[in-house]
Amino acid sequence: MGFEYALVHIKYTIPPAIILSLIYRPLWTKLDIYKVAFLVTVVVVSTTPWDSYLIRNRVWTYPPNVMIGPKLFDIPAEEVFFFVIQTYNVSLLYLLFSKPIFYPAYLRAERPASHARGPRNTQWRPYKLLGQLFFAMVIMTGLGMVQGRGRTMYMGGLIVWATPFLMLLWSLAYQFIIGLPRSSTIIPIIIPTLYLWVVDTLELKRGTWVIENDTKIGFYLWTGLEIEEAVFFLITNTLIVFGLIAFDNACAILHTFPDRFPDVPSFPSPLMLVKAFISPASKYDEDRIRGLQDAADRLNRKSRSFYIASAAFQGRLRIDLLLLYSFCRVADDLVDNATSLAEAESWVEKLRCFLNISYGPLQEKITVKDYVETQFPSKAQPALLQLPTEYLSAEPFNGLLQGFEMDLAFSKFQEGRIMSHPIKSELDLDLYARRVAGTVAELCLELVFNHSYTNISGEDGRHILQAGNSMGVALQYVNIARDIGVDAKIGRVYLPLAWLDEEGLTLQAVIKNPHSTRIEKLRSRLLDRAFEIYEEAREIIENLPEEVRGPIRVVVESYMEIGRVLRQGDYEVKAGRATVPKLKRIRVAWQALNK
Ligand SMILES: CC(C)=CCC/C(C)=C/CC/C(C)=C/CC/C(C)=C/[C@@H]1[C@@H](COP(=O)(O)OP(=O)(O)O)[C@]1(C)CC/C=C(\C)CC/C=C(\C)CCC=C(C)C
C-alpha cells in the first residue's frame, strides 16, 4: 500500500478542480450540473470495461506499493477517481469558455443546394461524411495494430476503444464541432492535454503507472512522455469535449424549435436528447434559425451591456429575450433613423398595424407574414416575424409605441406643428420613461413568468411587474443622463423644462452647449433620481424565480453601472456616448451573479 497515486491527485488534479469550481461558482446552472453528472457517468461506465481489460491482461500495471488498495473490477480507486476528475476539469473549462455562446445560432438547416437560402446555410453534409470516412480509416488502422499483438497492442486498443465513440459524437454533433468558436472547442482540449502531458511525464518517471514494454511502441514525444500516453490524454479530452458539445447541440435543437418540442423539462431525459438528434437537419425551420442569428448579431453589435447579460440566461428564456431585444431595437431604429417626420410617423403606424394583426383574431394571423414582407425592409423582417407574441401581452407594446410618439413630438415642436414641448415636468419625464423602458421591463418579466418552472400568482406577479416598470424608468433616466450631448445634437432635450427654469436655462442653451456646469448639475440630479428609484425597486428581484434572479441582476446592474461611471467620471467615450470598459462590465456581471 502507498499514497503516490493519491498524491498525484492532491498535487495535480484536485487543485485545478478547486480553482475552476471557484471561478465557475456563480455561473452554475442546474442544467450544467446535470450535463457534467451525465458525462461523468457515461465516461466511468464506458471506460471501466476497457481499463479493466487492459489491467487484467497486464497491458499496463500499477506497482502495488503506490496504491491505497480499493479496486473496482481490478481498477484502482485512484484511477476511477482520475476518470471523474479529468472529466470534471475539462467540463468546467469548456463551460467557462462557452458561456457566452448562443447555441441556436449555430444550427444549420441542411436543404439540398437548390433550396438553401443565405450564405450561412452552406452544405455541411460532405464534411460530415469526410469526418466519418476519416474515423473509419482510423478504426481500421487500430484494428490492424491490435491484431499485430506486439508493440502496437496498447496504441491499437486505445484507438479501437475511443474512435467509435468519437465517430458517433461527430456524426451527431458535426454542425457544432465545425461551427462553434475555436475558443470553446480547441482550447478546452489543448489546455488540459498539455497539462496532463506534463503531469504524466513527471509521474511516469516516478513509476506511478507503467505501460508494459512488450505492448508499447517505444516512441517518446519528449523525454519521459510515451506516445501512447500522449495520445490517450488527447483522445480522452477530445471525447469529453465532443460529448459536451453533443449535449449542447441536442439542447439547442430542443430549445430552438418549440413547434417540434413544445415542452422541454429543465432536465431533458437521455431519450429526449436522442429524439432531438434524430430530427433531421433538413427539416429544421430555416426562418427561425435565421431570425435567431439575426437577433444575436444585432444584440452583439448594438448593446454590449445586454449582450453580456444575455449569457447569464438559459434555454428558451434567453432565446425569447434576444428576440424581444431584436424587435425593440428594430422598431426604435426604424423610427429614430427615419429621414423625415412623416416617415417616422408612418413607421409607428405600420408597427401598430403589425401588432394589431399579430394580436388580432386567429384567422387574421395568416396575414402577419404578408404584412411584414410587404411593409417592412427585408433587414427588419426576421425581428418582427420571430417576436414571441404568444408569451407577451399587447399592452406594453402599445405603450412603447406611445413612447416613440412622444419622441416624435420633439420634431413636431421644432416644426411648430405643436406648441408645447413634450417634457415639461418631472411627471412628463416619468410618463415617457414608463412608456419606452417600463414597458420593456414588463415584457422581459412576462417572458420570465412564462418560461419559469415556478408559478407566480396574480398579486405577486402584479407587484413584480410594477417594480420592474419602475426599474425600467431608472434605466431610462441613466440612458437620458448619458445621452444629453448626443440628443442635443438632434434637437432633443429630455430634461424637464421645469428643471431648466430652476437653473435659469433655456432649451436653446442646452442644445448649444450641453456640457455646461449647470447642465452637469441637472445630469447629477437625474442620476440621483435614477438611483433612488433603483434602490426602491431592486429588492423585488429577490421575489423572482431563483434561476433568474442572478441574470436579471446582471441586466440591471450592467446598465446602472453606466450611471455609476457617469457619476465618477470614469468612463470611455464611444460615438459620443459614455461606455463602461469591458473588464469592468465583466466584473459587474460577476458581482451581480455572486450576490
Ligand atoms: C438580456 C437581454 C437580451 C435583455 C434584453 C432587454 C431588452 C428587451 C432591451 C430592449 C432595448 C431597446 C432597444 C428598447 C427600445 C426602447 C429603448 C431605447 C429603451 C432603453 C434601453 C436602452 O438601450 P440602449 O442603450 O441600447 O438604447 P439607445 O442606444 O439609447 O437607443 C432602455 C434604457 C430600456 C431598457 C430597459 C430594460 C432592459 C428593462 C430592465 C428591467 C428588468 C429586466 C426588470 C427588473 C425586474 C425587477 C423586478 C426590478
TrEMBL record:
Family according to the record: In the C-terminal section; belongs to the phytoene/squalene synthase family. In the N-terminal section; belongs to the lycopene beta-cyclase family.
Name this protein carries in UniProt: Bifunctional lycopene cyclase/phytoene synthase
Membrane topology term: Multi-pass membrane protein
Cross-referenced PROSITE patterns: SQUALEN_PHYTOEN_SYN_2
Keywords: Carotenoid biosynthesis, Isomerase, Membrane, Multifunctional enzyme, Transferase, Transmembrane, Transmembrane helix
Classification via Pfam families: SQS_PSY (PF00494)
Transmembrane segments: 6-24, 36-55, 80-106, 127-146, 152-173, 230-247
GO molecular function, one term: lycopene beta cyclase activity
Keyword Transmembrane: yes
GO cellular component terms given for this protein: membrane
Catalytic activity: all-trans-lycopene = gamma-carotene; gamma-carotene = all-trans-beta-carotene; 2 (2E,6E,10E)-geranylgeranyl diphosphate = 15-cis-phytoene + 2 diphosphate
Highest taxon, organism lineage: Eukaryota
Pathway linked to the protein: Carotenoid biosynthesis; phytoene biosynthesis; all-trans-phytoene from geranylgeranyl diphosphate: step 1/1; Carotenoid biosynthesis; beta-carotene biosynthesis
UniProt main location, coarse: membrane
Compartment annotation: Membrane
Protein EC: 2.5.1.32, 5.5.1.19
CDD domains to which the protein is assigned, alphabetical: Trans_IPPS_HH
Key word Membrane present: yes
GO biological process, one term: carotenoid biosynthetic process
